[in-house]
Design a protein that fits this description.
With 308 residues, the protein is mainly α. It contains twelve helices and no strands. It has two domains: 55 residues; 242 residues, MetI-like (MetI-like fold).
Length: 308
């Protein structure tokens, strides 16, 4: 039997593996991309743990977590992470206190009230803020926001946590507003129609129906904002000061974990010294802090997703 006498159905069976070859290649590339992201994350964690183990061979974990002084560059070095941790959390909380309400209100407006033309103009402008270099935001906090706050709060020092916290909040507003708006627009239209049929106004529908239905996506945007605020470097390094003070007063200067890493990474500390290895211990702490926020966000999203 020659090839010309083979039934058409059998010829299709012979060609099917060749037809699936591009699909298999694409699936393989996608899998490789996904695994590369996982591999990079594992490599970063492995490096942090390896370098931190050398640091903790000289400094006890208990002193690291409980000591209230962080002076690794002094002759009498102290390695208590609490001042840096408090500075990081304070600037992040200030940023969230500014960005969460503003970003959520902006998302509600864009999703439920703005016309398509206004949405097409406003949303890209908001997203452009995320593309501004953070060093520009740092000098904006130091040279504009802080002098403006000094007129409102007499005696406010040039370096403080309040100004950088507000500027970080401005930076993360696009993340919160854009993701929250996408989550709200994904809510089925019959939710809104049912609310209108019950006599609710557009505002009541937005706040009591659409926002709760999209809460899992909104919470995800908050978690992204938290991670972005916690990991911010240049704004706090420029405008918050680099003096590690254990203070909960936002009008005082303080250092954050990222600002300390920038300070040590300038090259003034000998490679392999305990002070140099401390940046990996600080980085591991920052990674653990971000991981905690993401895990909490996962359970919150899961709970609200099950509720709706």
């Amino acid at each position: 039997m020659n090839a010309s006498t083979v039934a058409p159905g059998r010829r299709d069976l012979h060609r099917r593996p060749l037809r699936r070859l591009p699909e298999v290649l694409v699936e393989g590339l996608l899998l490789l991309a996904a695994l590369s992201a996982v591999a990079i994350t594992i490599a970063i964690v492995a490096i942090l743990i390896y370098e931190s183990s050398a640091f903790f061979a000289h400094v006890s974990i208990w002193d690291f977590l409980t000591d209230t002084q962080w002076t690794p560059l002094f002759s009498n070095a102290r390695y208590g992470i609490l001042p840096l941790l408090v500075g990081t959390l304070m600037t992040s909380l200030i940023a969230l206190a500014f960005a969460v309400p503003l970003g959520t209100i902006t998302a509600i407006y864009l999703s439920e009230f703005a016309s398509p033309r206004v949405r097409e103009v406003v949303k890209p402008i908001l997203e452009l803020i995320a593309g501004v270099p953070t060093v520009v935001f740092g000098y904006f906090a130091l040279l504009f926001v802080t002098p403006m706050l000094q007129k409102i709060i007499p005696g406010l020092p040039g370096f403080n946590m309040l100004g950088p916290g507000i500027v970080i909040g401005i930076m993360i507003v696009p993340y919160i507003s854009s993701l929250s708006e996408d989550a709200m627009r994904a809510v089925p239209m019959h939710f809104r129609e049912a609310s209108f049929a019950m006599g609710a106004s557009r505002f009541q529908t937005s706040v009591k129906v659409v926002l709760p239905a999209a809460l899992s996506g909104v919470v995800a945007s908050y978690i992204l904002g938290v991670s972005r605020a916690v990991g911010e470097t240049m704004v706090v390094a420029i405008a918050a000061g680099q003096q590690p003070n254990l203070t909960f007063n936002p009008t005082e200067a303080a250092a954050t974990i990222t600002a300390f890493i920038v300070q040590v990474s300038k090259g003034d500390v000998p490679y392999g010294s305990v002070a140099y290895q401390s940046i990996f211990a600080a980085g591991l702490t920052l990674f653990a802090l971000t991981l905690v926020f993401n895990v909490l966000g996962y359970f919150v999203r899961k709970r609200y997703r099950e509720a709706y």
